[in-house]
Amino acid sequence: SQQGEEDPQALSIQEGENATMNCSYKTSINNLQWYRQNSGRGLVHLILIRSNEREKHSGRLRVTLDTSKKSSSLLITASRAADTASYFCATDTDSSYKLIFGSGTRLLVRP
Amino acid sequence: NAGVTQTPKFRVLKTGQSMTLLCAQDMNHEYMYWYRQDPGMGLRLIHYSVGEGTTAKGEVPDGYNVSRLKKQNFLLGLESAAPSQTSVYFCASSSSGSTGELFFGEGSRLTVL
Questions:
Q1: Which chain B positions have a beta carbon within 8 Å of A33's beta carbon?
Q2: Which tens digit of pLDDT belongs to each residue from A32-73?
């Protein structure tokens, strides 16, 4: 079964707007990661947030983590057409060896 | 910088045929993974390895076998392909397991007729 579930499944916004994606998970974690996948390509790591962190920034990306609600959000500010991709959260569940991925959010940024 | 390389990139098989997907990484990573990606399902972990000579089952291991004879290579085998194994397969590697970043290959698209 999927550990992480992203919401919404699909999101369409205008260039310049902010995009927010959410991830919920079921069990306790040590860290949560976000990845991006362009169409037909492999996944690329965006950001990692540890269970003792509440917020993390990287460029136009802002990630929050609420362990009490077992949820995380990814905010992309001032979106660009090049941000069009699928975004996945991944959690380490009960193992420090493996990452389990959610089903992803498809983001379309219209020029 | 090659990173993680998967071969082949595309393959069409008939039901019952066998094949092997090869993943090679040049980053000296201990951890390697095989995932499959199906529409609407995200990525599901098939098998993984925490070092040379080791393998372990993931979420969906049935119908697949793996080997890690060399640290840089992780092979995924299908002994008797089934249409349900039609998918895009991704290999990934990491220096620190799930505590750090995974580096992914570009994927191998497999169709089983």
A1: 101-102
A2: 999 999 999 999 999 999 999 999 999 999 999 999 999 999
Burial of B94 (0-12, 13-18, 19+ CB in 10 A): buried
Q: What angle do CA B38, B6, B83 make, to 5 degrees?
A: 35
> Tens of pLDDT along A19-34?
999 999 988 899 999 9
Question: What phi and psi values does residue A12 have, to the nearest 5 degrees?
Answer: -125, 125
What's the Cα-to-Cα distance from A98 to each of A13, B2, B88, B91, rounded to whole Å? Answer: 33, 23, 19, 13
Distance CA(A55)–CA(B94), nearest Å, equals 24
Q: Which residue of B has its CA nearest to A5?
A: B42
- Do B31 and B48 form a contact (C-beta atoms < 8 A)? yes
In sequence order, which ranges of B19-86 are alpha helices (DSSP H)? Answer: none
Order of strands across the sheet that contains B73-78: B4-7, B19-25, B73-78, B65-67
Q: Which amino acid is at B98?
A: S
Mutate to test the interface with B, among A29, A36, A48, A99 (most CBs of B within 10 A): A99
